[in-house]
Queue: 2 jobs
Job 1
Amino acid sequence: MRKLLFIFGFFGMVISSVAQQMTTTNIFSKMDMGPQHVLWDGTNTMLMGFTSLMMTPIDIPGPTLVYTEGDSVELKLRNMSQSASHTIHLHGLDVDQWNDGVPHLSFEVGHNETESYYFKAPHPGTYLYHCHVTSSLHVQAGMYGMLIIKPQNANETWDGGFTFDKEYAWMTSEIDTIWHTDSIINAPHDTTTIMRILPDYNPQYFFVNGRAEYQLSDTNVAAITSKANEIVLLRLANIGYFGNRLIFPTQLNAKIISSDGRPLPNVESSDTLEILPGERYQVLLQPTIEFTDSISVDYFNLNTQNIANIQMIPLNVSGFVSVDEVFGSQVTIYPNPVKDKLFFSNFTEKFTIHDVRGKSIIQGNVSSTNSSIDVSKLSKGIYFIKTNKRTTKFIKN
Amino acid sequence: MVCLWKLRNSQLVSKLVLGIFFIFLTFTTVATTVNQSLYIIADSLLTVDSAKVPYLTFNDSPTYSQSNPIINLMVGDTLDLWVYNTDNSTHDFLIKGISVVQSIPANDSVFLQVIFSTTGSYIYYDPSDFPKNTYLGLAGMIVVRNHNHASFYWNIKEHNSDWNTQLFNGNTVNWNQYDPKYFTINSVSNPNINGDTLARVTGKVGDTLYLYITNTGLSIHSMHFHGYHATIKYSSKNATHVGREKDTFPIYPMETVVLQIVPDKEGEFPIHDHNLVAVMGNNIYPNGMFTTILITP
């Protein structure tokens, strides 16, 4: 009996240790010692922010945190800011009160201290994290970043959701340099009160991923390059204090598919999207022709609704997705685009055809004796063939 | 045979009569007439930092309150409403999307009778010289429910004390340069919002809670929930947004929104404007639009 209990206990411990395997992420909160962050026009400013390495200079936004749905996460915050306490608020993740990062309702991390936030990565989607200590100041100072939860199949928006070929993440924000002066950003931390007098907010700089103007042409910053018939997932988050209005060229066939980490009940096709502070959206871009244009981002004042700034993000759709690119050289489907019958070579598997929303349309087997699929009854559009090994896109005309 | 038919028919008729009577009984017991009076009174708004700002509100008695009353109805109810103007200038009265504009001279009154047949949240206000009188405080909320779940009510708004003084003194302001300093829910700011039982969202794990929000200010507000996502049940501006499950909700000027929250865990979590300028009051953090939801096991 004792042996049996021991065996059960041993296996129980093994199972429990596997189940509790944790992804640990280290993150540092820091403050610039002076105005050392260079803005697009050469102006230097001072930031507070998060970095993934101790010696890395602060940038805005902070490092993007990426997890897979279901991950058990330990987010370890080491505060090296010399003065103020900090926290990490996991914006939209709906974590429990203790791990929510609101100082007076849980805990704050003092200078030279390390504390951990624990959570289980919830619904796949686009989220934020930011400091919630004197949040008006610390967020403006630069203490924010994007947090992405992916489903098990990283090329889907969520389990059974939309399939996409590539993704971009844009986080919008502003800077009022008055708030970044030493007397404001580096005021001595008062442990006796959370109250703080702050200046009026009149930002002079408007960002996408912490960059602006000519810097946005860099594809590593924001610019989008794509091919016709590729599906691009655009993750959007507004951490600023202005509203954003994005205007997509109509050729992008933009579809708004989710917000705040949840699928929309009805997909919305629109060339305009307003994103208010704290909101996140996911948009699918589905160009079917080659073209060059820009996506514009208006920054509007929430009190007057007047536009204070416009940033233009270059967009280049060049070339077409070829069959070989998605299949690999050994497998061919043809013709693509297809009208009636889709033929295969070097392909013998069970398959499912589903639409861009993930809905299964046709299921069957392809073999050497049955190497075509009748797709004549499908509506025009983009479809995917899923097998155990791969997902392949084709266009029905 | 005829007798049998008559018998069957009479049974059918009696069932039909019984059914109609039951439906009649159901509706007559639910729908009622609600008598309400509103008094337009000029006084002042006491801000979070104890400043007194000239202000105008509708009140449910001749005694001044800086918060406009929330008129709470069930679907099918009839609202019998008297509006008394105790101010020394003429005001108008309108229930947005429901009634027609009625002018009320100084020291006069008007009567409205409205049957509310659909659920939602509606704004009553003074549309004269818009947005002046609405901005100065004359805007409140009518809530029409079809349930008895715990419900909470926010009339959100912002204020610029200098502008209130200017407008009360008969001067004009440039609405294109609006720069509010105080941000309120039911006319109070943090930390006083949690003291308002109508505003402070409380409940138990698994409860179905409703939050009725109107924005009677001039600014767009972006209300962020910690801890929970909520579902949009009604939006006067974007009907297509109904059903969306979100944690951050833009609410545009003169828009009304109804949210449903079903808390899945206990805890105290903030709800605040994520335009983080609006969580300040006269430039003091965190004296603005900030409250907490409290959920017990």
Job 2
Amino acid sequence: MLFHTWPFVIFFLIVYPVYLILKRTRFGPAWLLIASYFFYGWINPLYVFLILYPTLVDYAVAARMEKSKRPRMWLAVSIFNNLLLLGFFKYADFITDNINILLSSLKIPYEIAAPGILLPVGLSFYLFQSMSYIIDFYRGDIEREKSFIRYATFVSLFPRLLAGPIERAGNLLPQLDKKAGPTIEDFTDGLSLFVVGLFKKVALADYLAIYVDKVYSTPEQFQSPALILATFLFAWQIYFDFSGYTDMARGVARMMGFRLMLNFNNPYLATSLGDFWSRWHISLSSWFKDYVYIPLGGNRKGRFNTYRNMFLTMVISGLWHGAAWTFVIWGVVHALGRFLTREVEQTEFYKEKVPKIARQLFVFGFVCFAWIFFRAESINDAWIIITRIFTSGIADPYCPVFALALIMIVWLYQFLYESRLKYILELKLVRIACAVLMILYLAVLAPSSEQAFIYLQF
Amino acid sequence: MSVNNTVDFQKTTVPFSSNCIRLSIGQWIIVTVICLAASYLIPVLWGRIEKYSPGPDYRIPYEMSNDYWLYERGCRLACSRNETLVIGDSVIWGHYVSSDNTLSHYLNEIADDKQFANLGLDGIHPAAMEGLLRYYGKDISNKNVILHFNPLWMSTPKLDLQTEKEYRFNHPKLVAQFTPKIPCYKASFSARLSAVTRRFFTLPNWVSHINITYYNSSDMPAWTIANPYKNPFKTVTFLIPDTDEYEKPGNSAVRRPRAENQLNDTPIGVPLTDGYQWVTTETSLQWDTFGRSIQLLKERGNRVFVLVGPFNEHVLEGTSLDAYKELKSQIEQWLLQNNIAYYAPGALPAEFYIDVSHPTSEGYALLAQQLCVNESFKTCILNFSWD
């Protein structure tokens, strides 16, 4: 059930009024839990059992941990259980494929049958959220949630269930406990977020996908300009797609009175790669920072260890995105980028002499290059794209000028937003005009196809 | 003026968003009013600005067979000028013939004071026709209506939409989406809901019209990918070429009806390999919906005359022919019992058919002549005047 489809509209029109009635009673969280499980079960009813299992385990582990003299052991049980689930559903095929390749290269006449498991949508997101609760509780950062209903709702809350943001217990659990219902302002704020997200997804991401899919499905048939253009457009497609999803998720949650964390903060205006990661998929970046990078030692144990920790974090982050070598390489490329630029970025020359726009363009260019690995169907395809970008001839890329114009408008908007001219965007008339134009564009000009969100595959 | 772009929650401060589009309730009301007004006014104004002259026959261009907004507009125009409307599938539309060789054209020639309008739609079948008339043919009231029934749709359970296996038929947005259930229709819940909502809002149908007319039946974004350097707004000329314009030789941008000399041996949509497995009027889904279409037209004050066939019986033999004759007799009985004027002619000469149900130009001319001497037709249509 995707936010921009009719089933969700009907689902929400039923769930929301009942929620408003029940919010102040003790049945509020229970209703949310039923709605969330229905939302997830709509995709596949068996998924309800899948989400129930880690929820039960982590709820029980937290209870045990509270009384146990060896909480570390219970923490290990929870993490092992969650990673096992993730490994089984997400990486089983990847692991068997690679073992088979290894056996074949060693000329061992044996092949392990591929499990052929489909990754349940949202699994990576809610397992990470559940793990963060256990780790935070182990660290003493939060109190144990006594109510199973509230805890299960925290793990499965439907607006953020499929693709985040990956919320922290410290932010979301107290909100579930709150008896006060959503205000009119919550509703209008949620609506504002939802409309912007819908526009990003349907009007922009799905539009750019038409060109990107065409080029990336057969990269060997295209010349350098088309490959560069498709990569540029993909950078925006994935941004519009994922941040659009997040905006809609935050909007729906906000209408119900929940404040979910900001997940994207105009990442293509970043002036360094570090800055980029503090603006892109913030809930995941901060998760890796808090639960991987810092526990590994962060930047406290010298330059070598800092880079090692950074490298490991980026590679794991790449692998989180998908069970394929292309994602691992994407992580490695970002890690290498951080190594090469971190020192330069800290120099006075870079900070003061290099114009901001140049820094932004450099970061954007690097991120675009890394996206090649993220989007390519295989390492071979990524290699074809990179070599053809530098070696193939020049041919008309049939550049969709209208799409470029839309991107430029968004880019300009973001520049203004982060400039002294932001007040122009804050004018009542401008805000109303933006909302009207987005809605009319969606109604009249938007692509008619219903495409799934890219990040649902992770 | 400043927009508060952060939200305090407990001790944490959650940034609202990374843009300024945050509206109050009052501002949302303004936005809603503007958008609702625009969604109502744009199609209305468009209908006045865009030039549409359907020609004397009113035949909708083949390329626009899925443009229900235009069909509704053509319907309104025809109803304001013509007393008699001829409604049906590609047999009435004239799939293999030009617009000056259709049944309605020949009827106009014979009875020139009656002005028969061709409101046939290529690819329509009874189940979809019911939806077409119910939602896009609301202007058809207090008129003479010649409603064509093509027995082809009852020639196999598949064409009668009864098979459990998915069958992708024409005009799926027009059929009943939820009830009565069409076994072979397997659209997603979302697609069905979308089809239902289109029936009650003009804007989505108008958008389809724009896409079909100006963007080669795709949408504007897809069109800009195919035509990257063209201005997508310049292609909107506010001019719908009439059918004759579409069918002019040399107009390669559009597909014209197939010429008679371009035929192959496979009739449209007929699974000859399966043979004919005629269904009965009691069990037929298509016949059931056809009955509802008659009922609907009558409820709207129309005088309904049903034309059955003429099916090309020359392609049938043995039990298949007997089954067809039995079916035709059932249809006639049903029409008699329900007091519906009709004409169910025998087969035209074999050379007057292009396939199992489509006559040649000469076939249409002959059919028009036969109709005009039919007593029931004369009473119901020719000799009746709404004045």
